[in-house]
Specification:
Layout lengths: L1 E5 L4 H12 L3 E6 L11 H5 L3 E5 L5 H11 L3 E4 L6 H6 L2 H24 L6 E7 L22 H20 L3 E6 L1 E3 L8 H10 L4 E4 L5 E6 H14 L5 E4 L4 E3 H15 L19 E4 L14 H7 L7 H14 L1 H5 L17
Parallel strand pairs: 1-2, 1-4, 2-3, 4-5, 5-6, 6-10, 7-9, 8-12
Antiparallel strand pairs: 9-11
Helix pairs in contact: 1-8, 3-5, 5-6, 7-9, 9-11
Length: 354
């Protein structure tokens, strides 16, 4: 199988590239390499010629056309997206360009490619988020739940979802939409909760938690997500939507406390020169900060459809996957050291201990 993965140098994208290469797929990655798309995430695969990499924008129609005709993919996975809610609140323009305009350009390019190469069987898998559904107090969102996006990020992803589905209805376009819950795991850029907390803790920085910390998210280990996307590629029905959740609901404060507990055991403060003699537990670094605008209280989606129809289920429990994730960040000092130096300055954080 041949796959074109947009956003393949990002967090979920790079994990999907690695996963599919391990299954024998031929992969070409198209990534703009903005702040969160990092060549370090797949550099070893490129060096070993296990995948091809092209730096570029999904909104560049000429480039997308060129890649489709040169590579002739069986599956196009669209994971290119601006995805951080805080950044979308600060400056929504990039989110509109990438998430909406970029998706439109991809759809048009693939539609034209299929029209001119009718013998080619191509699937377009659009990877989206549970945030398009908005917030829910009780129960779970299903594939039939109405959209109610509550941030510029969620709104642009919802718009992209609607475009993809409209192409299926209007043109018979061979698309599938997936909506996943909060992913975590290796190679995640540390402005997201879990890697931010891990790296801040080991550096003696505050562990900032919005509001009262009781916001609830369903957590999905990224390798379980990759397994689900492979099943969708192989067995998913065009025109369908599949929710992918990890059966891992936790309050934000619970997640941070569990990270602290793991670090206390794996890398005790007494062994960490940044905090040694100053704290007895990383929990002492927890700091509550002003809530962000439009902060959804709870996301919860039901993966019953993909479990029932495609036979998927997560292999990792939240606790086991979190331990693997903490250990990965501790063991990959070179990758951590290559990060943008001011990545955690967005919230004005400074070390508690000089």
């Amino acid at each position: 199988m041949k796959g074109l993965i947009t956003g393949g140098a990002g967090f979920i994208g790079s994990n999907l590239v690695r996963f599919l290469v391990s299954k024998g797929w031929e992969i070409v990655v198209l990534d703009k390499l903005t702040y969160a798309g990092r060549i370090e995430n797949i550099e070893d695969l490129i060096d070993n010629r296990k995948c091809e990499f092209v730096q570029g924008d999904i909104a560049n129609r000429e480039l997308v056309d060129f890649l489709l005709y040169k590579f002739e993919p069986d599956i196009v996975f669209n994971l290119a997206a601006e995805s951080h809610v805080d950044r979308s609140i600060d400056d929504p323009e990039d989110f509109v360009r990438t998430n909406v305009v970029g998706t439109y350009v991809l759809l048009e390019a693939v539609r034209n490619y299929i029209y001119k190469n009718k013998e080619k069987k191509v699937k377009f898998i659009h990877v989206s988020t549970d945030e398009v559904y908005g917030s829910i107090e009780k129960g779970f969102f299903t594939e039939e739940s109405p959209y109610n996006p509550r941030s510029p990020y969620a709104a642009t992803k919802a718009a992209a979802d609607h475009l993809v589905y409209s192409y299926y209805i209007t043109y018979g376009f061979p698309s599938i939409i997936t909506n996943c819950s909060n992913n975590f795991g290796p190679y995640q850029f540390p402005e997201k909760l879990i890697p931010l907390m891990i790296l801040n803790a080991i550096e003696g920085l505050p562990l900032p938690i919005y509001g009262d910390g009781r916001n609830v998210r369903d957590w999905l280990y990224v390798l379980d997500h990759c397994e689900a996307l492979l099943l969708v590629a192989e067995k998913g029905k065009t025109g369908e939507k599949y929710n992918i959740g990890g059966f891992g609901e936790r309050q934000n404060i619970e997640v941070v406390e569990e990270i602290c507990r793991l670090l206390d055991n794996i890398y005790p403060p007494s062994s960490n020169s940044c905090v040694s003699g100053r704290i007895e537990s990383y929990r002492e670094l927890i700091t509550f900060v002003e809530d962000r605008p439009g902060h959804d209280r709870r996301y919860a989606i039901s993966p019953a459809k993909i479990v029932r129809e495609l036979g998927w289920k997560p292999k990792y429990s939240f606790s086991n996957a979190l331990e693997l994730t903490v250990k990965w960040y501790l063991q990959n000092e070179k990758w951590v050291a290559s990060l943008e130096k001011n990545v955690r300055k967005r919230r004005g954080l400074v070390p508690i201990f000089k």
